[in-house]
Amino acid sequence: MSVSRETIDRLKEFSNLVCRWNEHINLVAPSTLGLLEQRHVEDSAQLSELAPPAHTWIDLGSGGGFPGIVISILRPTTRVLLVESDRRKSVFLRTAVRNLQLNAEVIDQRIENVSPRGGDIVSARALAPLRKLIPLAIRHGVSDTTYVFPKGISYQQEIAEAKTSWEFDVDVRPSKVNKEGVILLMRNFKRV
């Protein structure tokens, strides 16, 4: 990942914030703290590299800020909406947005209760299987939205299950971080 020194510093500041807060609330699994840069930051950064340009990026289930905060650091001109219903995590996200002076907004509601937002990009990392995720995500898109979903080894099964209810275009990209993982770039959803 080729980024400016300022961007690297902001990513490090965010990582430090995650480590400090993780002592009090579970932002990331304690077993992955030692691999925070690779397991979470680089994994999130690859989404920014794969996604097209966007005015608005909506991250559903933002949790510890992966990928939403990382996206906001890497794409400072993109407005990032971070949707997180867990009050403690939304307080953390607001702290990160304020401390890092990001072009982002935290929405502390359940995804299904958030009014449609019309994002150019909608992402969700480790939130739900595709068959449950699609109806939640498409409410926040428009006709040309790209949906960016990192998935694990069972992604083919998830796609097959989703195709029983939906038609869609999907571009499967290998993860640069997780050899068993992929990034799904999805578009053009239609109910079957």
From TrEMBL:
InterPro entries: rRNA_ssu_MeTfrase_G, SAM-dependent_MTases_sf. GO terms for cellular component: cytosol. Its main location: cytoplasm. The keyword rRNA processing applies. It is found in: Cytoplasm. GO terms for molecular function: rRNA (guanine-N7-)-methyltransferase activity. It holds the Pfam family GidB. Keywords: Cytoplasm, Methyltransferase, rRNA processing, S-adenosyl-L-methionine, Transferase. It comes from the Bacteria. S-adenosyl-L-methionine binds at G61, F66, I111, E112, R125. Its EC number is 2.1.1.170. The keyword Nucleotide-binding does not apply. It catalyses: guanosine(527) in 16S rRNA + S-adenosyl-L-methionine = N(7)-methylguanosine(527) in 16S rRNA + S-adenosyl-L-homocysteine. SUPFAM superfamilies: S-adenosyl-L-methionine-dependent methyltransferases. HAMAP family: 16SrRNA_methyltr_G. PANTHER family: S-ADENOSYL-L-METHIONINE-DEPENDENT METHYLTRANSFERASES SUPERFAMILY PROTEIN. Belongs to the methyltransferase superfamily. RNA methyltransferase RsmG family. Specifically methylates the N7 position of guanine in position 527 of 16S rRNA. This is Ribosomal RNA small subunit methyltransferase G. It comes from Palleronia abyssalis.
